Fold this protein.
Amino acid sequence: MAGKITFTIIKPGAVSHEYIGPILKIINENGFHIAGLKMVGLRRRQAEKFYAIHKDKPFYNSLIEFMISGPIVVAALEKENAVEEYRKLIGSTNPEKAAEGTIRKLFAESMERNAVHGSDSDENAQNEVKFFFSEIEIFSISENSIF
Ligand code: ADP
Ligand code: MG
């Protein structure tokens, strides 16, 4: 059964353009409950750990520099079938291919600076929430808490 939790990052580009409010508004309007929320700054080693799966990709070094270039907003989001529903709402990794009305279509500056992260599986969503939040910071409305 699909899980009820996903994880998102509002990336530095979107934060610096004052898109935190507009993005959270769209998230809420699309039926996601915000179960955890904070602004933080990634250290290099943390960004490298978060994106370790991409370490051999040509865009990896640039992506790390971008992700540590300024504050980010991290959130745990709750909805039925959360991972798939949120991937639909953010749109394609490449904003030029993202569907109209998606968060990336609306707010991305480029493939790298594509406004937001969204978990790609239930397992990764759980791990990502635990990486950024402690139990006291999550206010889940579903019965099966991730902690
Ligand atoms: P997604 O975030 O849609 O799951 P990936 O996991 O493939 O996409 O990539 C992680 C992040 O790396 C993307 O969100 C984007 O910021 C960056 N990225 C991915 N592919 C490229 C690329 N070809 N050029 C530059 N940046 C990229
Ligand atoms: Mg990904």
Notes: The radius of gyration is 14 Å. The beta strands are 5-10, 33-40, 72-78, 116-118. Residues 75 and 139 are 11 Å apart (CA to CA).
